[in-house]
Design a protein that fits this description.
Blueprint lengths: L4 H15 L8 H12 L5 H13 L4 E10 L2 E11 L5 H12 L6 H12 L6 H4 L16 H14 L1 E10 L5 E3 L10 E11 L2 E8 L6 E4 L3 E10 L15 H7 L8 E9 L3 H8 L4 E3 L5 E9 H10 L4 E5 L1 H18 L1
Antiparallel strand pairs: 1-2, 3-4, 3-5, 3-8, 5-6, 6-7, 9-11, 9-12, 10-11
Amino acid sequence: MGNSKKSIILAIYEILKEYSSENHPLSQSEIAALLEAEYKIKVDRKAIKRNLMELVNFGYNIEYKIIKRQNNGKEEDIYTDWYLVKDFTDAEVKLLIDSIQFSKHIPYHQLEELVEKVSKLASYNFYDKYSHVASLKHNSIANPQLFYTIEVLNRAIDSEKKVSFVYNEYGTDKKLHPRKSEEGKLREYIINPYLIVSAYGRYYLICNNDKYSNVSNYRIDKITDIKILDLPCKPMEEVSGLENGLDLPRHMAEHIYMFSGESVCVTFEAQKNIAGEIVDWFGKDVIFSNENDNTILATVFVNKNAFLYWALQYGKHIKVIEPKSLAEDIKNAAFEIYQKYE
């Protein structure tokens, strides 16, 4: 980098961005030393101050202090403790990094790249401050096509076009294998995409399978070989359950585990001490009634298949009252489990 005025001001900005923070401000002498060490640029203190003030005048959020000092009997202003105010606090950056690291769908090399990029939003001593906070490294298998698939889906949603793709399942070899028809032919899925959501550490596509009239949810990390088709997407109002548009909070509350299929009204008796967990799972629309010292009735509108799995998880603490068919399904599933251990 040459010693042009433009290169000096850019170098000073980069130094403030990388090395300064509220807890680690820089003096003009320190900036001068970093300019020489990092960019082989030698400038005096007045030039540094002039460039810093130009950055301030350009609108950059740079803080500094003015200290009064006597010099040969005259009072002069000393400008010091310069730092660039970050768009994110260190705690917010840590939250973003944790969200990335706890994701189960991002290939590890891409995860590391993302963490490195996001960490640059934090202050100079970010890693010193958070060195005692551990992050869980997941060991799930990632689909290398994931980000490409998301990019294609976004373009398809924006242009209101159908997509085709191959949908896969993981085999015992820990690799993705495409779903096939009973005849052994590769199954091609023609889908009307509406929205991408993040839930349970994974990305899901809320959509409609062209063969059916209801809402479907597909795990995006299981999608490969996606293509945008030159066919208009089915209007959302023609999909059962989306006639009035997509109410995302309601959809997510009804589709715990992101199962597809019908939703039903379920009433169940629960131990009172898990009321908070019921709200965590089903959201604010859950209706509580018949409260006593130990139990409570809860009513939710939820995907039937998903609730069966949820009921097996919380089976010691709940009992389904309605619908009777769901109670019978849970009973049969529990009995099958019992028989395996008998």
